[in-house]
Structure to design on (170 residues):
């Protein structure tokens, strides 16, 4: 058998193998980049939903001070909360099984829980206003609301930092 033909055939096979490996690596790298982008988009959506939810929560207190009906703004809060829960669910789905994303999901859950606590604190303030609670009770409720708001804003920052770590900034 001709050694030149064997060398040529071996070279063609080695070249084809290398081409296949390069294509595989490119496809895998592209898939990872798309996954990181999906995680980043989901984290951004959750962060935005949390911020959007806080607006009607604070408006609940304003409505109480203005003497508005206790049900005022309830539908807006429910709609905004639905967006929060959908956004958290999407983030959990796209981050499932991805290395480095568990911290992001943990912070996201904590941010959602803190935002729910913020709503509870706003409800306490609104109840204290409507029930004409003593000034000390109202001040206590307002302090708890301010603390919950500070914690929620702090967790916004933590959520974005965890998203950057999980996605490499994608």
């Amino acid at each position: 058998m001709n050694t030149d033909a064997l060398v040529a055939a071996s070279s063609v096979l080695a070249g084809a193998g290398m081409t296949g490996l390069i294509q595989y690596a490119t496809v895998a790298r592209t898939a990872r980049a798309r996954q990181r982008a999906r995680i980043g988009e989901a984290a951004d959506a959750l962060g935005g939903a949390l911020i959007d939810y806080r607006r009607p929560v604070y408006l609940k207190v304003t409505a109480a001070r203005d003497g508005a009906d206790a049900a005022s703004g309830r539908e807006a809060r429910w709609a905004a909360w639905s967006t929060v829960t959908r956004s958290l669910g999407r983030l959990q789905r796209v981050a499932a099984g991805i290395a480095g994303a568990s911290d992001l999901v943990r912070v996201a859950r904590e941010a959602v829980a803190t935002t729910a606590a913020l709503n509870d604190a706003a409800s306490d303030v609104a109840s204290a206003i409507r029930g004409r609670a003593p000034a000390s009770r109202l001040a206590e409720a307002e302090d708890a609301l301010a603390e919950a708001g500070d914690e929620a804003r702090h967790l916004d920052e933590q959520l974005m930092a965890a998203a950057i770590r999980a996605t490499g900034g994608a």
